[in-house]
Design brief:
This protein is α/β, with parallel strands linked by helices and 118 residues long. Helix content is 24%, strand content 37%. The chain has 4 helices and 6 strands; from the N terminus they run H-H-E-E-E-E-H-E-H-E. The chain has helices spanning 2-7, 9-16, 74-78, 98-106, and strands at residues 22-32, 41-43, 46-56, 61-69, 88-92, 110-114. Strands 1, 2, 3, 4, 5 and 6 form a 6-stranded mixed beta sheet that branches. The longest helix is centred in the C-terminal third of the chain and has 9 residues, at 98-106. It is globular, with a radius of gyration of 16 Å. The mean pLDDT is 83.
């Protein structure tokens, strides 16, 4: 763990100049065997759960973890989470919802989206 922490330390120093709390938010699908986990319906012949996570960038420690069924869209869960005023939240394009972004802007929260390379 320490090796990973030290590998990105120059970038961390740059982000520390923000003087704001930084959170990284994402979700991932964990495939499950549908014949064993029949409650985890994802597609007609596949099972899965979705792990929604928010990392506190200061310590790379999860500050929020939520498990839902695999069909749950990540932006739906994101709307239920409250963040500290004035913080920065980094998300991918799957979280883009202009109504939600307007709400975040009204509470002085900065949202940064990252694009994925193809």
């Amino acid at each position: 763990m320490e090796h990973l922490w030290n590998r990105n330390s120059p970038r961390r120093a740059e982000l520390n100049r923000l003087k704001r709390k930084v959170f990284l938010m994402d979700a991932t699908i964990i495939p499950l065997c549908l014949s064993v986990f029949d409650w985890a319906k994802f597609r007609s012949a596949k099972g899965a759960v979705k792990l929604h996570t928010i990392l506190d960038y200061d310590g790379c420690i999860p500050s929020f973890v939520h498990i839902t069924d695999g069909k749950q869209h990540k932006s739906k869960i994101a709307k239920t989470i409250s963040f500290p005023k004035g913080c920065v939240v980094v998300v991918d394009r799957g979280y883009v919802d202009y109504a939600w972004m307007n709400v975040l802007d009204s509470i002085d929260l900065n949202l940064s989206t990252i694009g994925l390379k193809k």
